[in-house]
Amino acid sequence: MKIKRFRYLVLSDLQIPFHSTAAVKNVIKLARREKFDKVLCVGDEMDFQTISRWSEKTPLAYEQTLHSDRELGREILWDLTEHSAEAHIVRSNHTDRLYNTLLKVPGLIELPELQYEKFMGFAEMGITFHKKPYEFHKGWYLAHGDEGSINRNAGMTALNLAKKWGVKGVVSGHTHRLGLIGHSQGLEGRFKTLWGFEVGNLMDARKAGYLKALSADWQGGIIAGIVGGLVVGALSGSSTSVTGPAAGLTAVVAAQIAELGSFQAFLVAVIVAGALQNYKKCLVY
Fold first, then answer.
1. What kind and span of H or E run contains 93?
2. Distance of CA 5 to CAs 206, 230, 240, Å?
3. Model confidence pLDDT, tens digit, residues 248-283
């Protein structure tokens, strides 16, 4: 029995203009080549640093870069989504900053051009904006990750949301950590597994001036995968499978090249990793 497969690309927190230029460039190449069915963004695509509460009464509030930041954000989001059949973005704490700023002048809230999705021009780019978590596949939800309590263990914030909402899985951002955690529960031989997937970030930590000593428990990353299948999914009852290494491996390689700074450095890292594996095998035998 043939089951329709869906190819997804999930974008982590960009926080433009504090994004990693190299990482985003590589992900754009991936999106153009693979032409995913859906591109999903977990939110915080924009930082909106000049209208944050942290900028109040500081020189940052007077930099007047909101327009240029928005135009850069629109350009990057278009490049990331133009080759996909659908594109979806969910609300997030950083993009809520526009509404929170309007709360200081309530008379402006009703202006349609100041609603976030219209302010960004998502409709013109074919992007759907969701004010609530978005069910992108049956039982699987895309959320920002700030809808519940934050856990320091990668994947647990998303898993706790899956438990809270009683759904199969949650894919989220916000924590800037990269991790997948499953939790199985059952009775009398009937089991189900809930999943929490946190997708890391696409930021350049060097641009994040609020980080002490430019150090944080963050991991760069995205998700590229296929949901559905032909035989395994039908026989096992599982709706998730990955067919072929190309898309997923490309995403991993792209993120690591961006992290290490060059393709040559990535090759060196692969050689060192292989040498360490062989060394450990020698110790065992």
1. none
2. 39, 8, 9
3. 565 566 666 666 667 667 777 777 777 666 655 555
pLDDT digits (tens, 9 = 90+) for 77-104: 999 999 999 999 999 999 999 999 999 9
Residue 214 lies in a domain: yes
Top-confidence residue, 245 or 42? 42
Are 17 and 64 in contact by the 8 Å Cβ rule? The answer is no
Question: Could you tell me which residues are beta bridge partners of residue 220?
Answer: 201
**CATH code at 146?**
3.60.21.10
The structure tokens 């700030």 sit at 146
* Any domain includes 280: no
Bridge-based pairing state of the strands 223-227 and 6-11: antiparallel
Provide the domain count of the chain: 1
Q: Which residue segment(s) compose the domain that 91 sits in?
A: 6-246
Using CA atoms, how far residue 171 sits from 48, 257, 267, in Å, is 23, 24, 30
